[in-house]
Amino acid sequence: MASDDFEAGWRILEDLTSNAALIQQQVLEEIITRNANTEYLRSFLNGKFDKELFKKKVPVVDYEDIKPYMERIASGEPPEILLDSPVPELLISSGTSGGKPKMVPSSTEYLDKKLFGQSLRASVMMKRINGLNQGKWMFLQFMKPETKTSSGLVARSYITSLAKHIQQRKIKNDLYSSPCETILCSDIKQSMYSQLLCGLVERDEVVIVGAPFASTFLNIISFLEDHWKELCLDIRTGHASDLITDPSCRNSVSVILSKPDPKLADSIEQACSASSGKSWEGIVRKLWPRTKGLLTIVTGSMAQYIPTLQYYSGGLPLLSTVYASTECFFGLNLNPLCQPSDISYTLLPNMAYFEFLPVNSKDSDVFDEDSTIKENIVELVDVKVGQCYEVVTTTNAGLYRYRVGDILKIIGFYNNAPQVQIVGRRNVVLSLGPDKTTEEDLSKAVTKAQLHLEPFGFLLVDYTSYADTTSTPGHYVLFWELKKKEGSCGVEELDSKLMDQCCCILEEYLDDIYKMYRHENAIAPLEIRVLEGRTFDTLMEFFIAKGSSLSQYKTPRCIKSEEALGLLKSRVVGRFFSHKTSF
Ligand code: AMP
């Protein structure tokens, strides 16, 4: 299916979602039939190809349960431990949202499914937004340097894997402004510079601007703020900067930057310098005037970036279109122009076999007993609207009843396929004792406090947290980086009364158990520590140096690494505490 044949794509989607129940059973049957004789499944099924036996016997697992199998494959044991087919590579997850990076096998079917999902996404967008097939998509993606396991198997991020396969299979990629070589350049600075340069040269053709996650996109804006003068010089002279040293990246950029274009350089310079020093409000629209939307994920832990994205994009629609992870492609937002609060993803029943474990916010740990899990788990077509679940997936790439760690809320059905909102990760991020604050709780409280700041001209660039137990009682600490809409934000401009109010609002919106313990002074007042500008960029660089991928990077909402905590603490410019007394 070609991505510009969007009507065909839409028909496929109608068919998949209408036949969700049947397709789910077929997917499961195919996976069991092919893999029943692998070491892993044989130990539960005795080689029988039986779906009911699968549901009865195969345990629902976490990454830690199957990690030994991944390590065995990495060290060169045959893939038949888990899969009937060869493992061309191992895929590494970002590990930033849920803890340590994970390693899972890839397979040809898996890659085909991911490419199919991407192409279906293009169809949905073209069907819903006029003119998207009459221009270029400036969608910046970054590769993470590959590594090899002790047995020589390549380990890479899934975005790198997709880009490599698009290149190897010579799949037509001219919808995008970034040549494959610029994405595959492992030096992030060169890659970002080159992709921006191409996107600026083709500025008048660009109809979509974006990056996989909102946090990645904002990092690109920071980079642009630092490099626009150099980029303009390149366009003015027709010579790419010496910063691009990677030969294939340089070659591909030179094809696009074929001649000097002083007129284009002038108009980019005008857009950037008119804004420079004051604010970059609406810079995306100014630089790419034909853009119809900002394509980036703004749901789940990314929701916090919405005000900043709206500010830089000049109110462009935020197109949050895909829900996918290293382990599995889940679904698509079929109504990309909807408001961020209405975004939901329709699960695609052909991507994997999906099961759902009901959770009542904090009760997810109740389902740690295998027997309780098996009693409560339901299939895709049996989910209930309004209920939250943890998603469990069985894939063509050696994952069987695997808990991804995402909590989803069912908000309806498209035909017979559930539509989900991403509530957050399963893990509790903050706890000093019986209080358990999840990523979702924290994000809700921060969203409320952030609203309080906005009328005063402040943007919350990013946040993270930790539970400080160095004094008794312990307390929650939130690290905030703030930016003034007009120009930079020094700590002297922070009104301590305003910040104290933010601390109080945060506590107000935490849950009843937290408030009960605060009321009894078993938890000390919540603290906000304001950070120097660009601290979260430095934190991201820190995690990337440790092996995270920029395209998949998500700011950890709770800092566990002592080293990262040290970095944050060294950049604190102001400390504020809640004075809330009644709960
Ligand atoms: P990774 O394992 O690095 O590939 O990251 C995948 C994780 O990113 C998922 O399990 C989700 O927690 C998160 N994620 C992916 N897509 C979305 C989305 N559309 N909205 C919110 N979070 C997402």
Care to describe what's here?
- This protein is an alpha+beta fold and 583 residues long.
- Helix content is 39%, strand content 20%.
- The chain has three domains: 6-106 and 340-425, no CATH class; 130-292, no CATH class; 430-577.
- An eight-stranded antiparallel sheet has the order 9-10-11-16-15-14-12-13. Strands 2-1-5-4 form a four-stranded mixed sheet.
- A hairpin with a 6-residue loop joins strand 19 and strand 20 (475-484).
- Helix 10 packs parallel to helix 14 (306-313).
- Adenosine monophosphate binds at residues 93-94, 97, 297, 299-300, 302, 320, 322-326, 404, 406, 422, 425, 552.
Instruction: State the share of residues found in helices, binned by percent.
Output: 25-40%
Our count of helices gives 20
Q: How far from one another are the termini?
A: 58 Å
Strand order of the largest sheet: 9-10-11-16-15-14-12-13
Mean pLDDT: 90
Shape: globular
Count of separate structural domains = 3
Our Rg estimate from Cα atoms comes to 24 Å
Bound compounds, please? adenosine monophosphate
Strand content: 15-25%
Task: Briefly note the structural class of the backbone.
Answer: alpha+beta
Low-pLDDT runs of 5+ residues are none
Q: How would you sum up the major sheet?
A: 8 strands, antiparallel
| Secondary structure: number of strands | 22
In terms of topology, how is this protein built?
Blueprint: H1 6-18, H2 20-35, H3 39-45, H4 51-57, H5 63-74, E1 90-92, E2 103-105, H6 108-128, E3 136-139, E4 147-148, E5 154-156, H7 158-168, H8 180-183, H9 188-201, E6 206-213, H10 214-237, H11 247-256, H12 262-275, H13 283-287, E7 293-297, H14 306-313, E8 318-319, E9 322-324, E10 329-332, E11 345-347, E12 353-359, H15 370-376, E13 378-379, E14 388-394, E15 402-414, E16 417-425, E17 428-430, E18 437-438, H16 439-453, E19 458-468, E20 475-484, H17 496-508, H18 512-519, E21 527-531, H19 535-545, H20 562-569, E22 572-577
Parallel strand pairs: 1-5, 3-6, 6-7, 7-8, 20-21
Antiparallel strand pairs: 1-2, 4-5, 9-10, 10-11, 11-16, 12-13, 12-14, 14-15, 15-16, 17-18, 19-20, 21-22
Adenosine monophosphate binds at residues 93-94, 97, 297, 299-300, 302, 320, 322-326, 404, 406, 422, 425, 552.
Domain GH3 middle: 345-425
InterPro entries: GH3 (IPR004993), GH3_C (IPR055378), GH3_M (IPR055377)
Domain GH3 C-terminal: 440-563
